[in-house]
Amino acid sequence: MNAVASTSPDYFHALYTDDDPFGCRHRWYEARKRALLLASLPAEAYDAGWEIGCSNGELTVALAARCRTLLATDLDPRAVELARARTATCAGVHVDAMHHPQQWPTGTFDLIVLSEVGYYLAPDALDALLARLPTSLRDAGVFVACHWLHPFDEAPQNGRQVHAAIAQALGAPAFRYEDADLLFEGWSVSPHSVAQREALR
Ligand SMILES: C[S@@+](CC[C@H](N)C(=O)[O-])C[C@H]1O[C@@H](n2cnc3c(N)ncnc32)[C@H](O)[C@@H]1O
């Protein structure tokens, strides 16, 4: 039996002949997803964020407003170029070309976001990413994963499989949102709720 492969970088290279291949700049699905994701973050501000698979930088710009420093990575060189241009006026943002999990950033983060990327990874590659993730997450950190739920041909996994793999690796999420199209979940290292952090309870 042939092992399932991650989506090839060639697939993304071909897509990035368009500057906005996923419609991040004009689709309401994308704008709403960003708003939901940002609203779910337990802390108002983060010291060091990492966005895995940043595409042309639309979510990166939104995350930059909540992070003192933000690393954004993508395997595709054109996506990196576009994200750099999009975040040129954002303080503290650094965009790097990296193919995960083979390549990995140094440093640790108190916010890591995996949005619409996990299903492009083969199960063994996603497991390798998830095994490495805790070493990059600080004690008060949060990991947020967000995925489109409808299967599509170019992805070796669907969103539910990705979130099941994450739960298998990291346990039950601290928060979640789901509708007919989208699932996002967050895993906090800290056991304290938002209210506990503000001494409300
Ligand atoms: C759908 S876009 C996600 C954009 C953004 N995170 C969002 O949710 O708006 C997926 C991006 O992930 C990148 N990508 C896919 N597999 C990757 C991998 N293994 N390592 C790094 N980037 C990857 C692709 O090049 C593409 O730009």
**Biggest beta sheet attributes:** 7 strands, mixed
Give the name of the CATH architecture.
3-Layer(aba) Sandwich
| Estimated share of beta-strand residues | 15-25%
Report the uncertain regions: none
Please, how many domains? 1
**Overall 3D form:** globular
Label the structural class.
alpha/beta
- The percentage helix is 25-40%
The end-to-end span amounts to 54 Å
Characterization of this structure:
This protein has a single domain, classed as Rossmann fold, CATH 3.40.50. Strand 6 and strand 7 form a beta hairpin. Helix 5 crosses helix 6. The radius of gyration is 16 Å and the shape is globular. Helix content is 33%, strand content 25%. With 201 residues, it is α/β, with parallel strands linked by helices. Strands 3-2-1-4-5-7-6 form a seven-stranded mixed beta sheet, sandwiched between helices. The protein contains seven helices and seven strands; from the N terminus they run ααβαβαββαβαββα. The site of S-adenosylmethionine (SAM) has 21 residues, from helix 3 and strand 2.
